[in-house]
Amino acid sequence: MKKLSGRVTLPSEENFLNETKELLSRWGADALRDSDGTKLDKEIKQLNAKIYTTYFVARSHNEFAEQHPEEIQQLYLMSQYHMATGTKLEVTFMKGYFDEQIEPDYVHDPKKWWEVIDRTTGEVVNPDSWEVNQAENQLVIHQAQPWHEYTVSFLAYMKWDPTQMYNHMTNDWGDKPHEIPFDARQPYSNQFIKDYLVKWLKENPDTDVVRFTTFFYHFTLIFNHLGKEKFVDWFGYGASVSVAALQAFEKEKGYSLRPEDIVDQGYYNTTFRVPSTAYLDYIDFIQQFVAQEVKELVEMVHDSGKEAMMFLGDNWIGTEPYGNYFKDTDMDAVVGSVGDGTTLRIISDIPHVAYTEGRLLPYFFPDTFYEGNDPVIEANEIWLSARRAMMRKPLDRIGYGGYLSLAYKFPAFVDYVEHITEEFREIYDKIKGVKPYTGIKVAILNAWGQLRSWQAHTVAHGKWYKQTYSYYGILEALSGSNAEVTFLSFDDVIHHDIPDDIDVIINAGDAGTAFSGGEIWKESVLTEKLREWIYHGGGFIGIGEPSAYHHEGRYFQLANVLGVDKELGFSLSTNKYFTDTADSHFITDDTKVFHFGEGIKNIYALEQQTTILGQNDDGIYLASSPFGSGRSVYMAGLPYSHENTRLFMRALFFAAHKERELKKWYASNIHCEVHAYLEINMYAVVNNSMETQTTNVYVGTGIEHVVTLGPSEIIWEVCKDGR
């Protein structure tokens, strides 16, 4: 077979010409890029490849930023809790923050823009009762209530860009200047951004793609006094706050924001928090502004004959690609880091762009590429996860980032990437633009809905928290399965009808989070619509603490649908009669080896009709229940694994009353999957493991045959007789 080429972007650097030529050939790359900390020299730019150039819109210009310190980016921060032992309390509000990154804002009047809160009562302390000692970065509260705790919400300047700071420390950049981020909303900065881009475009005629990294506002990343990460929220809008933004918000929305609307009791509106109306308004406000400004920059790039690409990360706040305004930016492409199948689908499903590109991990950085470590292990794990999702919705391009000279020192890694790039192109050439067979359509129901498509429970780039890996596995399982996935918000259900083509709705998460829903479950319209839809034949899967909000004697507000509820300690005196576990069931017939992660304790059956499929001393962890003509399934959690993916798919088909359709384009071996592309009369049998596997393969008619696949092998077959 002739070796394919193209659709791969290679990072390179100065004084690495011959090696770059070699890897361009071996990896079949057709584009070259620089990275944060590297540059492409003239000789490399003359190679036969498209040139991507990293472009920082609101950093990397210290000569400008230092002339306009009042326009450095700002954010609201909250002090640590301080307890008063007398009527006078001194709050050292910068304690725990990194003074090389953060500087309090004394340009704008603290009495107007800061907020002191008695956290014992929740009351705001009158500004007349406190004063600021600027020399000591200290706020003194007079007439404090002894034994109450207090916090200070203060405006600060962010004088070191968080990504450059991270890279600076990771790569030991020593005396390299700390890059100062400036605010596109401010007059001088706004004009400088546009004037400099015009100048830069003229000075870089050999650049084909301007890779914006990204635009104006960095996701919330604050470091502590040790220079370690203190607070990280990949979705956080904290760094978009400024006095100018707050004033513009009030003018546009008709009301003013409090500092508390941003600091949010110290949670900073993390994506796991149920978003307040004020915070949703603020997100909308920032997205509109960013989209308008980005559109102007993109027009300049287009006028110069170049393409505009956005990196899905770093300064991406306001450009969320599933938001209402992203389409207005006229962006040509989006590139983002791919750590698994879920992060691949975040990128590959993005609408309104000509192409998408995934930067496969690991970075070519010394924290991975060091003597004694084998980067192939990480690369292989990521590729097998990403490839599952690629079989459902492929990216248009892949690539890497970092120091190519580091990767070149690892021949086995170079060999493995050669295999990855070839396999990617084979998949792409066969199935791009072809809709794969899907046996079921599911909707993920949470507070964010479509805005955060494929992003529920996500930290970033395939990362999750210990408390959320039990839920993240849901999306990872779905990313490469024969299921069509959509995302609904609670407001979607409340204000609109549930779409007719949905088979199963999934609500998953810990109680009180944006993903379970919290207080929204008091809304009777929400429970009415869901109960009616399920009663008339819909399927519902609840994972963790679905519909959880203690109200009127129920904890799960859809307990009557799920057939289970959680014991909170209030009904211990009430006997729980239904404890028998079913010997067998459609959901568990395929495998008995699965686990539920952190799990949820004290789940019990409400009715005899609830079928208990798994339980231990901590309570039920798997159950199903009829509800009218519909069905529900309860799971205590679903970390990603091949076993759990199979269990989950069986649960989905059971909930949808589609048991007979499960074994269409299906592999009996849990480590294998079948993807059918009926438009082109082909299907693929995929081994998702690094071991040889044998499986029965069920085609569209249910007829089976046996296939043996080598480690991670894909076998492509032609559909026969219309099957």
Automatic annotation (TrEMBL):
Lacto-N-biose phosphorylase central domain span: 441-659
Domain Lacto-N-biose phosphorylase-like N-terminal TIM barrel: 6-438
Pfam families according to UniProt: Lact_bio_phlase, LBP_C, LBP_M
Alphabetized InterPro entries for the sequence: Class_I_gatase-like, Glyco_hydro_b, Ig-like_fold, Lact_bio_phlase-like_N, Lacto-N-biose_phosphorylase, LBP_C, LBP_M
Segments forming domain Lacto-N-biose phosphorylase C-terminal: 665-716
Highest taxon of source: Bacteria
NCBIfam families: 1,3-beta-galactosyl-N-acetylhexosamine phosphorylase
Protein name: 1,3-beta-galactosyl-N-acetylhexosamine phosphorylase
Gene name of the encoded protein: lnbP
